[in-house]
Amino acid sequence: MSSTSRVAVVTGAARGLGQEFAVTLAGLGHRVAGWDVDSQAETAARIAAAGGEFRPVTVDVTDPVAVEAAVDEVVTAFGALHIVVNNAGIYPPIAFEETTVDDWRRVLRLNLEGPFLVTQAALPHLRAAGWGRIVNIVSAVVFLGPPDLVAYTTSKAGLVGFTRALANAVGAEGITVNAISPGLVSTATAARTTGAGGGFERVRASQAVPRTEGPADVVSTLRYVCDEGSGFLTGQTLNVDGGSAFR
Ligand SMILES: NC(=O)c1ccc[n+]([C@@H]2O[C@H](COP(=O)([O-])OP(=O)(O)OC[C@H]3O[C@@H](n4cnc5c(N)ncnc54)[C@H](O)[C@@H]3O)[C@@H](O)[C@H]2O)c1
User: Fold this and answer.
1) Catalytic residue selected from 152, 204, 218, 226
2) 157, 136 in Cβ contact below 8 A?
């Protein structure tokens, strides 16, 4: 892997997968801005301890004005923007019959409209650099369709379509667009929601690799997708789920 220093934005970097993505990219020598509605003190402390460069920005990725301001802040601080990791997302288990229109809109707004707003605001800077990596965090649910995650599955399947169409829109400009689809990863939020009530055991039993997926199982794919040598990889959904869905 090559080691040009780039500027990255990771949304939802306060905890969970987003925190691991931010720590990983900073560890590669990239300057990283974490965007979250919550405190990113833990992420900042981990990156500082490893000698990396991190700028926490408090921003709601569903607010177009705040997103524009956050892009300006990053570009002013770091002078450029090259990598966007659309990671912030929610996955509340709700039975389909009980899903209200507000539930539906809340899930699609953060998981699908958020990446649209962030990517559109960031894109002029990737274009100006003539190099970019847009990485959308989806989920293996797009292949599996669990019955209590209809809104969530719809939002992530939408993000797969976004990934493919946008890859065609920006492919001539040195910018790749890919999706990473983890299985069930042992973040605190997953443990409280999808993983509760034996969820981890059930998913483990469906995998070719019979252990619980951790954030470390996903970061190597992020490194690969963001690598300088991965410019011919685009429009793809890389399924990192221990083999529970062979697609
Ligand atoms: N954990 C899993 O099992 C799993 C599996 C597949 C895909 N994913 C996806 O990975 C991503 C991260 O999952 P996680 O388990 O790490 O979640 P998490 O709950 O640990 O982290 C999500 C982060 O997003 C932030 N956030 C929420 N709303 C926001 C907003 N409006 N603006 C900015 N930030 C906001 C939260 O504050 C939080 O820090 C999500 O997109 C999720 O759908 C997770």
Assistant:
1) 152
2) no
pLDDT tens profile 26-40: 999 999 999 999 999
Distance CA 197, CA 202 (A): 10
91 is catalytic: no
- The closest-lying atom of ligand 1 relative to the alpha carbon of residue 195 is 3
Is 175 touching ligand 1 by the criterion CB < 6 Å? no
The residue ranges of the chain whose pLDDT is under 50 are: 1-2
> pLDDT tens across 123-178, in order?
999 999 999 999 999 999 999 999 999 999 999 999 999 999 999 999 999 999 99
Locate 151 and state its tokens. 């809104």
Q: What pLDDT is stored for residue 245 in this prediction?
A: 85
Q: Which CATH number applies to 7-184+215-240: 3.30.200.20, 3.40.50.720, 3.30.565.10, 2.40.50.100?
A: 3.40.50.720
- pTM, rounded to two decimals: 0.98
Residue-wise burial string across 81-109, b where 16 or more C-beta atoms lie within 10 A, e elsewhere: bbbbbbbbbebeebeeeeeeeeeeebbbe
Distance 203 CA to ligand 1 centre (A): 19
Distance 18 CA to ligand 1 centre (A): 7
Task: List the structure tokens of 31.
Answer: 């300057």
